[in-house]
Amino acid sequence: MDMIGLFSSLTWLDAACVALLTSVWAGLSWWIEHPSLKHPSVTVLMSQYRLDWMQVMITRVPRIFDAQMLSSLRQGTSFFASTCLLAMGGLLALIGNVDPLLGVAEGITHTQSPTLVLQIKLALVLFFLSNAFLKFVWSNRVFGYCAVMMGAVPNDPDDPKAIPLAKKAGELNVRAAMNFNRGLRSMYFALGALAWLAGPWALLVACGMVGWLVWSREFASIPRAIILAADSDTKP
Fold it and tell me: What is the model's pTM?
């Protein structure tokens, strides 16, 4: 397929929708991690609880509960990393042979989609999944750093090293969770990118739906209201 045929199949609307999708993805990620003080996101609210958790851990004897909680968090990152890896393998196989998709895409869009165009559209999905995989793997590793740091916290709460090491463990826990959340957002947008197979307008709709879903879960969800209520209950 020559470049003229490619540009005739992928229009300025396709480019605009892809640019919008990636912009919404990057913009929401920044907004969620840097919200205003008056309207914090769930991610930021939970970060404080993670820091508090490490402080409480100092006086907890034994610390089996804390170890089990961290193990559960690492299992979550491992599960999603494995899921992304399987999805990436399937996508790579599909990119190598898009014939099964040709009929489906033509049936939805009522137009003939060249092989290279479908491969480009699938590559966008692969980009988001690859980013998610890398974030989950890094999150798992940072949770491992956190586990080591937790093990280094002295059992004596009066030890001068206890609080500084607990704070470091808390910061590592926050960083690991942040990367885990970034991976989840990439998976959401990977699902939205699949809509491009049905055309740019479908991608535009999917971009709005995924953007709203991610935003609402961070800023307008019931769990957020519960967390805020818990914060207000603990204030003197």
Answer: 0.88
